Here is the input.
Amino acid sequence: MPKSLYDNSDITQNSKQLDVLKKNFPNCFDKNGNFISHKMEEIVGNVGLELSKESYALNWLGKSYARLLANENPRTLLKEDKEHNAKEAHKNSQNLLIKGDNLEVLKHLSNAYSESIKMIYIDPPYNTGGDGFVYNDDRKFSKEELSKLAGIDLDEAKRILEFTSSKSNSHSAWLTFMYPRLYVARELLREDGVIFISIDDNEVAQLKLLCDEVFGEENFVANVVWERAFSPKNDAKFFSESHDYILVYAKSITELKLDKLDRTEEANNRYKNYDNDSRGLWISDNLTVKTYSEKYDYSITVPSGRMVNPAEGRCWSINKDKFQALVEDNRIWFGKEGDNVPRLKRFLSEVQQGMVPMTLWKHKDVGHNQEGRQELKALFNDKGYFDGPKPLRLMKQIFKLSSLNKDDLILDFFAGSGTTAHAVMALNAEDGGNRKFITVQIPEKTDEKSEAYKAGYNSIFDITKARIEKASEQLGDTSGFKIYETTAMFE
Here is the structure.
């Protein structure tokens, strides 16, 4: 039998070919950069070749349909809101607010904004059941049409159509909903781009595997735990949940640059100057390591005359000569009485002017859900028209880490209350930047019994639009925004 067209041994011999494949098919590589041939065959379609190996993969009912949706041409047109866009405040704006199904919008954006987005933040439906996520697809395929288009049997086509034509909050439905959106979103990211995705416990495992599939395992950056709440809920059945997750993926891990966080006063306060060193504040650091080497296992006589050795199984991190040089440079601390195990002095003046972010984000540093709600209420006369808006401080930290230049483009295609657009304008107001936002929101109806509906906000989109307008006025932002919406091709 002939060797597979995508055989790993051939491809890895050609670095240019490998680079092209990594750029366009990151899901065909594992986290170590090894090519997985059968995943390529899945994408381009089975051409009658037998697979010589089995490999770990994410599969679900509807995956074939999700691929079909990802590659299907848009079924709508984009129509501008001419009355709004003609206003002086908006007519020259590069900011966009788009009303419609975000999959359709993403496909429209892929023409004008391919590989143009520096950072994407999304807060998609969490699929919690009840009033949470439901999949309700208005595409009208027969089971015969779907079977032919997706290359699946009639029974599978029938089962897929059952959850796409009625309300469903299964994992399969959620994955089918998310896959094409992430797939197209990846194409919008620049090579140095990054995406942050908020999610909860219910779908974080599935989302991680899905992002590995779409972005490639090697482009995983972090799974951040955000402390979104700080008060326990005593009516919780087992545990009072106080966190969400934020998954971070790069378009290309080799091109990604993340900034460090500003040093905090708390971090700087750890530095002291017990010996009045002319080089200023310092902190002492352990001089031993667990990786044992006989060469680095030696006795040290401290100033008091006591002899010390590393703990059993450990050794010093430097050799004798280096240690002596540090002593002569007054970079070793033996304690105020000269009797302690030696430690290395690290000076504040010499440390990097920034802090590597941890994956645990405390509410005191980046805000919490109640803070986000209060920020929204402050714009709407103390009315809370939207549940669970993200706090601006959370977005500020994400922006900081994303290494945004002052003219970069940020996308949020689950706009919700409009926090991302608000945060972009707030950051521009702080540093004089000219960053642009693209936000997308489906005109999901508000409950007729809700305060939002009673106040004239008939859809979530109306709240998004109002927040951007009110935040812009509050900040003195004059960049404006244009409005477009998806419409049927033939009306």
